[in-house]
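ugh finaly. both done.
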Amino acid sequence: MSKQNMHSKVRSRYGSRIKDGKGHQEMHEASSRRAFLRNTGLFSLGSMMAINGHSMSQMVINPLTMGLLNNDTDRTLILIRLNGGNDGLNTIVERGNDEYYNIRPTLAINEADMWNLSDEIGMPNTTQSLQPLWEAGRMKVIHNVGYPQPNYSHFRSSDIWASASDSNEVLGTGWIGRAMEAEFGSFLETPPNVPPAIQIGIENNLIFAGADANMSLSISNPTEFYRIAQQGQLYNTTELNECPAEAELKYARQTANNAFRYSTTIQEAFRKGVTKSEYPDNYLAEQLSIVARLIKGQLGTKVYMVTLGGFDTHADQNEDRHPRLMTYLSEAIAAFITDMDADNLGEKVLGMTFSEFGRTIYENGSFGTDHGTGGPMILFGGEELGNGFVGTPPDLINTDQYGDPTYGIDFRSVYGSILDGWLGIDDRVVDHVLGDQNKIDGLVPAGDFPSGLNAQSILLGYKPALVAGHIDIQYSLSKGANTRLSLIKLNGTPYRTLFDSYVDRGSYTYTLNPQKVVVSPGSYMLELRSGGKTHRRHMLVK
């Protein structure tokens, strides 16, 4: 029996298809509810306020953020989120694969409609703007990226990718947020005047959530950004009169404008940065042009995230939907790199695409695809990146019970390789943030990173222990040293010494029993002193 004939015997996941009706709508409504909560600040881990229907995310005072901004390296990471579930099979095409054409009789990309990455792999001609990058050795393809026991809800799978959790684990922090907090825990509690991360889009993404604050500035859309860059304000108050309703709105807008601490540095960077590339007229390109100006203006932000939506292609996928999005993506990336190259900054940026899941390998009855499992990721940057493939294309024959291929590369291995290799995050921090993941050798260009203040000891963080009410505090020493772990009141007064002794080299977990040590519920500074270094971070005892 052919694979195509077997299609009718493949089980479908309830909720992954439009025709599942209520189940599919519930999937989307769950996502919409969470997006609403995030945008209005009810779900945010940072300081968020919603005024006149718009969201404004503000970095709260945090001792753990200045390190990234003061890092001697000037590398920048650009995350491009393909929202909705990108169809990986029609993005990176295994040429000459009869099974691909058999199971996609109308959606498959024909040989004449693609350009060559290699004799075996191609991309649709709608992405031809990327061809010069590939031929110059400035683009890599990572095949078949996913995770075990995949989830097919837009919201839940997005959160898994953002938090780097297992599919059965719910985390309230993101992989970038945890890395920022843990790596730079020894810096003073000083509010930064530069956002450690910036995201442009409708949602305050979990990726940047730390335990104590969201580590990013969230800008709802380019129009909102231009108001900040040109006026130093989010909201105009001059056109409002003194009637009660407008007076109240005026006060709320003034409060938001006064609370926004990044306006001066963003204005200065935007004014200094000059765009030297012609960007196409699409939403992603506009976002990347903003990122380019901030990088050129030496803002100092290390991580940016931009979003291109519309990838939930259940119907009429090839009717100016997925092809158009591929054009938007490729043209925007090409313009951005051209802009970076104009100021010799191409080697200083690394871009990475990702999506919450892929699509089913079969086309459906509406000439589209439903929610699937993994898919490819694309890296782009300077000539030092090189080109080539990581992993192998998905196996379209030996699939699971739902007709989906098994993933080949865990997405957290990609994250870990970038944190370590591109941003220079300490291996101990990477293991704390992502667990024990196999890094991909040579994925990104090696960097010459300063050892910094955290070379000998790191206060990694804390989390609830297995015993109810107990707290696991994690730290790591690269050299044996006299070490003291203590709690400090927020006014700086010493509160409790948890231990004070010589500790050998290694990674440790200290389990705090608040009742035994007599620690009252409240907010404290957790302090680690070791080898002449002091590390602090905020800690909440419930």
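ok and the 2nd:
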Amino acid sequence: MSIPGCTGLQAPIMTASYLKRLAGHALVEALVAQGVDTVFGVPGESYLAVLDGFHEYRDSIRFIACRQEGGASFMAEAQGKLTGRPGICFVTRGPGATNASIGLHTAFQDSTPMILFVGQVASDQRDREAFQEVDYRQMFGPGTLGLAKWVGEVHDPDRLPEYVARAFHTAMQGRQGPVVLSLPEDMLTQETDARVLPRVVPALAWPAPGALRDVRAMLLEAKRPFILVGGSGWDEASCNALERFVEGWQLPVGCAFRFQDTIDNRHPNYVGDVGIGINPKLAKRIEEADLIVAIGPRLGEMTTGGYTLLKVPRPVQKLIHIHSGPEELGRVYAADLLLQASMACAAKALETLAPPMSLPWSEWTQRARADYEENLVAPAVEPLDMAVVVKTIQRLAPEDTVYTNGAGNYSGWLHRYCQYVGLKKHGKTQLAPTSGAMGYGVPAAVAASLLYPHRTAVNIAGDGDFLMTGQELATATAYGATRLISIVVDNGTYGTIRMHQEREYPARVSGTDLFNPDFAALARAYGWGAATIDATEQFEPAFAAALASGKPTLLHLKLSPEVITSRTTLSAIRSSAEKR
């Protein structure tokens, strides 16, 4: 029993699982039965019996000890994105759970399957505010604006397999998301002979035939349709079906914020990402569309341009919204047609819709693609051109490279100039938080490198972003990550906030300047290779050397704080604000 990227790990003989053993061991067996062979976490005294279970079954499952719970939960979230199965994170009570909440929030907003196991105080100490005690049902409160889909606490060791199976079902069913299971310390040390349960396979929802006929009828009535894809739950087969659907109907397709790998960006029907820093021509095209078919995305604030590209609550364009979670349909937008369907089924169903002999929007699609290609061209920036940096990375890196980033102004270059290959060929190639969480990129790249050691992982981080989780470089070194490159864009400022600050309060800098270490020296202290780069021509040889080195490498890019995006400088933003 194994997950790609973790060869050589064998499942335990499960006949032994029906004998009396510690509940902590039974929990580990239940995870192995679900196909889990890697978990991330920070050890704690509240779940020592589980840690002992990881030792007992060390040939079947590995515990990756991280340096901070935020980094561990980000790694588990990335694991959920990469595998399509719940990423697993273990943390101790109180401070551990609090630190891990950032990854949980990311998993919730990104609709990523994930399970956070939290150690809890002993049952006889509950409700006394014992050492590090927290009520996790209150803390993570499930709901439409909570941090988890479900929060449970296991008091009976005989029910552990039941709770684990339910957690997997809940995390993967409908709109995917995170689950929290609280584990009282004394429960884990009791014995149980409970049987582990079979591997959970989520039920899939197919769109109703009548609704499919309505989709076809609305497409035939359209003159300027637009397809918007994203969200979680996609797999290789559904992404292939999506491409065949948009090809057959010659439809322009854009990807929701930070779901750019849903379709191959080199496909002639792909016309750009719909998120922060959207191509103005693409934004105008969406506003002028007479039909939007949204397949998978939540239609949140970032994808809708602050709910302006699609007006709330009734868009000017006709809207078909297809989503796996019924609670998401009609939540914000009064659409013309709502379809509940799993992404694994929706695209396959749409592919069966026969297009007419002629389509009035063929030129519309071709012009949209031309706009996208034009947006890939950027004016030269000296002395260090980030557009050239991103294009060089993609030219030299293997096609199946996993690209990761956190939050910050630097990510705009990656989103604009990186052409993601798409899930249909290599699985996920983009790991980025729609929640806008800083510090995500380094742990996500570490997780990708450990789970898929045959693939290259490239992280691009800002200086502020990197130092939030940069200690996880030690985790990469400890567990033998090799094909891993972290690129730190150092401009000495919290760039996104500085940009907003200069626009609203020009020339009044407050709280956004940063003092930074020598990032290259820091990386070498962790056992990484490193180089410092301050000119465009230095980057290609340094990146090529990093790819060939066989060890994790950090490239420290020193950028002027005046360079905010490829189109804009701080001085231009400041000048514009002063003119107002």
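summary for the 2nd one i guess: The radius of gyration is 24 Å.
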